[in-house]
Amino acid sequence: MEHLLIKGKNRLNGDVFISGAKNAVVAIIPAAIIANGVCIIDNLPSIEDVRCLQDTLSKLGAVCELIDEGTLMVDSSNLNNFNATFDSVRRIRASYYLMGALLARFKEAKVALPGGCNFGTRPIDLHLKAFKALGAEIEEDYDSGIISLKAEKLVGTNIFLDTVSVGATINTMLAATLAEGVTTIENAAKEPHIVDTANFLNMLGAKIKGAGTDVIRITGVESLHGAEYMIIPDQIEAGTYMIAAAVCGGNVSVRNIIPKHMDSLSAKLKEMGCKVVEGDDYIDVISDGKLSSTRVKTMAYPGFPTDLQPQMVAGLSKADGISILTETVWENRFQYIDQLKKFGCDISIDGRVAIIHGVSQLHGADVMATDLRAGAAMVIAGLASNGITKIGNVRFIDRGYEKIEYKLRNLGADIKRVKE
Ligand code: EPZ
Predict the structure, then answer these.
(1) Which residues are CB-contacts of 385 (< 8 A; sequence separation ≥ 6)?
(2) Model pTM?
(3) Which residue stretches of 134-248 are H helix?
(4) Using CA positions, which residue lies closest to atom 44 of ligand 1?
């Protein structure tokens, strides 16, 4: 059992280098299944979700190995199995991308239902509707938890997504890459990882236009070849360090990022009283640790990301006054609030709204990470608290944050990982 131990109240100063984007790489590794050739993926984050996908692709028959620190080689030429029903598939949510990728390659796929962070119903009906529209027959066996997909052929069509969904947008792009004719996705999600996945597929020879807007057009091609590709920086990891700097006070340069991706957070932090200075590939957050309250509403990109909601709630807990945070993406993403209350946070929940009464001081607590971003929120609360914080279930945090304690220590935080 591993814990993070934090002695709070240190100011944060210095540079932190952001790793490759988790939610891009978890789509790009499965996308490499479609290529007839070797894909080299650079700026690979060293996180559990990547190791889980590596394991999954290897079990399917691909060669999927690190050739350097931060560089993954995927050779799917000998991948000959479309039955992705083993345990590693169930461990992460992004395994749903195996459906689109295997369907594109074999016109057939059997995939175990995805796991991942549990904050309410996480349906995949839109993914399945899109596969069906492209010509797949689908069997959903909820006893075994396995989805089977099969198509004579996949044929491009118009797909309107009822809800803006990252997963359904990417999965439809994957499945449509080799389909006959043109597929149009309307009401597509616009997150940076969607653009990154489309850029990767285009580098392999796909014809995808419009990624980053709400209409994406995919003209099917015969086959994809290998290529080398660099993953974009992680918007959410960057945002987590920006919020940590704002709450703890100090001067932190968040480096190796795309500042544009951070616009919604930068605007909020400025509103809360921080100085936020943008450079070409970095943002400096300068804060005296005294924050004002604000209102935040999570939205699909370019709105404020739901994946920064828990970290922001932790930050607002120390802001002066009452803040209101509305979660519009996930119906039940406030389960971690009870853990935050152990730090002395004064938060009440009314449906999808969190009402946060800022307190002047938090105190260290013994808490459990309830999911990935909730874990990050607890780290922030611990850094900003008087006394010692102990965070259990670190494995959740490791799913999406590379070397979190090392990066924070470099900024002056007193944090270590302990085994019990
Ligand atoms: C992705 O999840 C991210 N995961 C999530 O990040 C993130 O919270 C979410 O997008 C929203 O930004 C990955 O990229 C692997 P959605 P995804 O489909 O694709 C509803 C993290 O912490 N919906 O965009 O699963 C759904 O209920 C993780 O890194 C349907 O109704 O999310 C939700 O309300 C957690 N039917 C909304 O759409 C569907 O078929 C958005 O979900 C699919 C989704």
Answers:
(1) 6, 8, 9, 343, 344, 361, 362, 363, 364, 365
(2) 0.97
(3) 166-176, 192-203, 235-248
(4) 165
Q: Whose CA is nearest to atom 16 of ligand 1?
A: 165
H helices of 92-191, in order, are 97-106, 125-133, 166-176
Phi, psi values for residue 245, rounded to 5°: -65, -40
In short, whether 124's Cβ falls inside 6 Å of ligand 1 is yes
Q: Are 153 and 107 in contact (CB under 8 A)?
A: yes
The answer, yes or no, to whether any atom of ligand 1 lies below 6 A from the CB of 26, is yes
Q: Reduced to 3 states, what is the DSSP secondary structure of residue 57?
A: helix
Where does the pLDDT of residue 116 fall: very low under 50, low under 70, confident under 90, or very high at 90 and above? low
Span 152-179, pLDDT tens digits: 999 999 999 999 999 999 999 999 999 9
What lies within 8 Å, CB to CB, of 51 at 6+ separation is none
Phi, psi dihedral angles at 110 (to 5 degrees): -125, 120
126 CA to centre of ligand 1 in angstroms: 11
Residues 97, 94: Cα–Cα separation, whole Å: 6
Q: Is 327 in the pocket of ligand 1 (CB under 6 A)?
A: no
The amino acid occupying position 365 is A
Chain-centroid distance of CA 253 in Å reads 22
Task: Name the pLDDT band for 115 (thresholds 50, 70, 90).
Answer: low
Report whether 108 contacts 149 (CB < 8 A).
yes
pLDDT on residue 86: 87
The closest-lying atom of ligand 1 relative to the alpha carbon of residue 163 is 38
Buried b (16+ CB within 10 A) or exposed e, 199-236: bbbbbbbbebebbbeeebbbebeeebebbebbbbbbbb
Residue 240 to residue 377: CA distance in whole angstroms = 8
Amino acid at residue number 403: K
- Answer yes or no: 117 catalytic: yes
- Please indicate whether residue 163, judged by its CB atom, sits closer than 6 Å to ligand 1: yes
Once rounded to an integer, what is the mean pLDDT over residues 100-126? 84
Reported as a single tens digit per residue, the pLDDT across 364-376 is 999 999 999 999 9
Q: Which residues pair with 291 in a beta bridge?
A: none
